[in-house]
């Protein structure tokens, strides 16, 4: 692991403060990260479930954290592809959390997957795969 939890947290607070709207960093390891989103009314969609964009945002920022654990603090690593499958309905007023794992990290590209869970449920509510572009000369 190239960076520590504290270094990544400080980087996100300084360089990506809007990312806090998508969740807070909980754990960080070598090529993996966990984040949690406290669900409130702004994250709900009609019908009383967590919205897709809220789950996608959490998944994306969590994979960004996992990638940075491998490549260091690279602000311009950006999502180039995001695929998500919504598997079951999350509990409306319970936090959701995500665990991201990098599957491959190369010189110019990183690929990973994210499982999103509704707190208190054992089965994931969403599964996402993503590709990130890593800038040259990082």
TrEMBL record:
<dbReference type="InterPro" id="IPR029069">
    <property type="entry name" value="HotDog_dom_sf"/>
</dbReference>
<keyword id="KW-0378">Hydrolase</keyword>
<protein>
    <recommendedName>
        <fullName>Thioesterase domain-containing protein</fullName>
    </recommendedName>
</protein>
<dbReference type="InterPro" id="IPR003736">
    <property type="entry name" value="PAAI_dom"/>
</dbReference>
<dbReference type="Pfam" id="PF03061">
    <property type="entry name" value="4HBT"/>
</dbReference>
<dbReference type="InterPro" id="IPR039298">
    <property type="entry name" value="ACOT13"/>
</dbReference>
<dbReference type="InterPro" id="IPR006683">
    <property type="entry name" value="Thioestr_dom"/>
</dbReference>
<feature type="domain" description="Thioesterase">
    <location>
        <begin position="47"/>
        <end position="122"/>
    </location>
</feature>
<comment type="similarity">
    <text>Belongs to the thioesterase PaaI family.</text>
</comment>
<dbReference type="GO" id="GO:0047617">
    <property type="term" value="F:fatty acyl-CoA hydrolase activity"/>
</dbReference>
